[in-house]
Design a protein that fits this description.
single chain; about 220 residues; mainly beta; 5-stranded mixed beta barrel; 12 strands; about 10% helix
Length: about 220
C-alpha cells in the first residue's frame, strides 16, 4: 500500500501529457494521508482536464468526519465497485490521476522495514489511476476534494514484489501510460477496469531511500 509519495513539479511534463499547467499552490513536497496533493481530473463540463489540489485519502460524501481518509488512501481495484467508500465515485466515473515523481514502500529484505523509493526507469514522472469524491465539512461548510489511488495484485513482480512484510500479498499502484491519461479521465467503467494492470516489467526501478532529517522548505 502506498502511503507516501513525492508530487511532481515538472510543469513541462504535465503540459505535454495533459495540456494544462500546474496551479500556483503546489502543496508539500512529500505527501502522506491527509495532505494535499496535485491530481488531474475533468472540469465541471467533463470535457477537459484540469489540475486540482485534493486530500490524499478519500472521504466519501456520506462520511460524518474526515477521519475515514486515514484508511482510504489506497483502493483495491478488485473491490472498488463494491466497497461503500468507493463504489459511488467509481460508478459515477469520478476518475483522477495522482501526479508524482516517485513513491515509497517498505522493504523487509533485511528483516526490518526500510524505506525504498520507486520511480520510472526512464526518469519521467508518473500518473497513478485514482478516484475522487467531494465531502462537505459539517461545521464549516468547506467543500473538500479527496482521492484514493487504485492498487492491483503484484505477486511476482520484479520490483513491486519486493515490498511489504514477508508473506503479505504484494500490491502496486496502477501506473497509467502517459499517452492514456485522457483516456482514463474520459473512460467508461468498463474501459477503466480494462486499464487496471500491474506495471510492465522493466518500467520501474527502486533504491534504498532512508528518510532525511526534517528541513523547512518552500512548500512546508
Amino acid at each position: 500500500m502506498c502511503t507516501n509519495f513525492a508530487g511532481t513539479r515538472n510543469e513541462a511534463w504535465v503540459k505535454k501529457t495533459l495540456g494544462v499547467g500546474l496551479p500556483l499552490e503546489l502543496g508539500r513536497l512529500e505527501v502522506f494521508p491527509g495532505y494535499l496533493a496535485l491530481v488531474a481530473m475533468l472540469d465541471a463540463s467533463r470535457q477537459s482536464a484540469e489540475i486540482n489540489s485534493a486530500r490524499f485519502g478519500l472521504i466519501p460524501n456520506w462520511a460524518k468526519d474526515a477521519a475515514i481518509g486515514r484508511k482510504t488512501y489506497n483502493c483495491r481495484s478488485e473491490t472498488v465497485a463494491e466497497k461503500p467508500s468507493y463504489r459511488t465515485p467509481w460508478r459515477k466515473r469520478q476518475f483522477a490521476i495522482a501526479l508524482m515523481d516517485h513513491f515509497y514502500e517498505p522493504n523487509w529484505e533485511t528483516g526490518k522495514a526500510e524505506r525504498w523509493q520507486i520511480c520510472r526507469r526512464d526518469g519521467e514522472p508518473m500518473g497513478v489511476a485514482s478516484i475522487w469524491d467531494r465531502w462537505i465539512e459539517p461545521l464549516t461548510g468547506e467543500v473538500v476534494t479527496s482521492f484514493s489511488m487504485l492498487t492491483v495484485n503484484a505477486d511476482g513482480h520484479p520490483v513491486m514484489g519486493r515490498f511489504h512484510r514477508p508473506g503479505d500479498e504484494k500490491r502496486s499502484v496502477v501506473l497509467l501510460p502517459t499517452d492514456s491519461f485522457n483516456d482514463w479521465l474520459h473512460a467508461s467503467v468498463e474501459e477503466a477496469q480494462n486499464m487496471i494492470v500491474v506495471p510492465a516489467p522493466g518500467l520501474l526501478e527502486c533504491a534504498w531511500a532512508p528518510r532525511q532529517p526534517a528541513k523547512m522548505g518552500l512548500f512546508d
